[in-house]
Amino acid sequence: MLIAVITDLHANREALEACLAHAEERKVTRYAFLGDLVGYGADPGWVLDKVMEYVRQGAWALIGNHDAGLLQNERQGMNPTARNVVEWTRAQLNAGQLDFIAKLPYRIEWQDILFVHANAWAPENWEYIDGVMEATRSMHATKASITFCGHVHMPTLFHISLTGKTGEFVPTPEEGIPLSKQRRWLVIPGSAGQPRDGNPAACYATFDTESQVLTYYRVPYDAETACQKIISAGLPAVLGHRLLHGN
């Protein structure tokens, strides 16, 4: 089975369309969407409908912190920009879409794989994996050999050796990485809808369950259109401009 792992879509229709088309060309057989389906972007309804369509066909989907924010009546902890985006996004969605979000899980386990949005130790608290220390904590919090994780918008790969030493590296796109059974792994594909590593191309990854090969991808998309749609919707212009630079 070839699984495409796509996370942090952030209501970016253009990026999601590009990633899905790219994945279909590689004959992906199953999809996992790791949360933050909405937030920041101008097409929350379209993105949710597309994810719901894939879920009906057998895809996995998780809730992210931006998705969960739509379900909360009190938003005092948010800064004015974030509160604005949440309120605008909620107004674009129908009851069925909000109900879909409300039923999304925090984690999904399948065979020897764990899918989470934020981390394995407390996925509902939305704490970030900012480096080796948090990655080690997350890998120790699960029995799964491979954890796929979103929330962090920069592609990264962590692993723990048999001696307990944790390693970290930034993967090269399109170079297959065999995930040895002698190690445990934490895979952060990066954000499809809002990359933040200085590269505006959308991020996602595939994992072949037979060969145990992981491959990261960068997919160029029409970021100019996505940017202009954000500005036209009356959302903060900075949310559109950052798409052009990947920051």
Automatic annotation (TrEMBL):
InterPro entries: Ap4A_hydrolase (IPR050126), Calcineurin-like_PHP_lpxH (IPR024654), Metallo-depent_PP-like (IPR029052), Pesterase_MJ0912 (IPR011152)
Domain spans labelled Calcineurin-like phosphoesterase: 1-211
Pfam families per record: Metallophos_2
Top-level taxonomic group: Bacteria
UniProt family annotation: Belongs to the metallophosphoesterase superfamily. YfcE family.
Protein name: Metallophosphoesterase family protein
Organism from which the protein derives: Undibacterium umbellatum
